[in-house]
Description:
By secondary structure, this protein is of the alpha+beta class.
Amino acid sequence: MTTTVFPGLATSAYVQQLRDEGRRLAASAAVLDLDTAVPACPRWTIRDLLRHIGYVHRWAARYVAGQHSQELPRLDEAVILRQDIPDDGLLDWFCAGHADLMQALDAAGPGLDCWTFLPGAVSPLAFWARRQAHETTMHRVDVQLAAAAAAPPGHLDPIPAGLAADGVDELLMGFARRNAKRGPLADPPRCLFVQADSYRWTARMGAERAEVGQDWTAPAAGPGDCTVTGPATDVYLLLWNRRDPADLPGLYLAGDPETLRHWRRGVRVTWR
């Protein structure tokens, strides 16, 4: 299986995406009731989402601003969602955490040395900018999809194709490979081929381990029990479980749909 370094984006591009997405998220949440359900995050409301992402931004900012080389204690998700933040100040609290993270990233130099938890980034600064850009983009999508569900048809701001392809790579080469022993595993083995624009990945799931590799020289219709191809933005939203295939007309699926369902059930985005 071929593995190469994904070209990614410049650190400054991740930082700008994070800046813009935080503003979009806040603007979209501002017009919603905090009790609005978030379909992409079952059992969450907009209140829960703001508490989660506000905490995550502050958590990331601690590493960047403090240059901590070891993992720091953090709150469990259940505790995060019970934080005592008044509803009438929750959006301001989110915005303050986003601003603190932006200030930390803007002040950090390219030589920043601190703890990270996924491979693939060229530096700790690029890692945190990349991780929080995708975290915030996905949760902005969650807010806008929640608004659309509450009052159809809604509106979903576009996602740059380069960022979307990068997000597919982070999910497959970062989270999926790191969590291989916890899932997605399959017996009998299954193979998922993914193409987002010109970028290609192959994920092989066995009973005891999963392997993911990039192979950009593979045939366009790669070998696999299931093949997923399409615009990078569509693949990004699909594999991050934000949209279903029926909602993405540019997507092409071939082969065994259970392989894709197995993958989507198995991949988990966790903090460690």
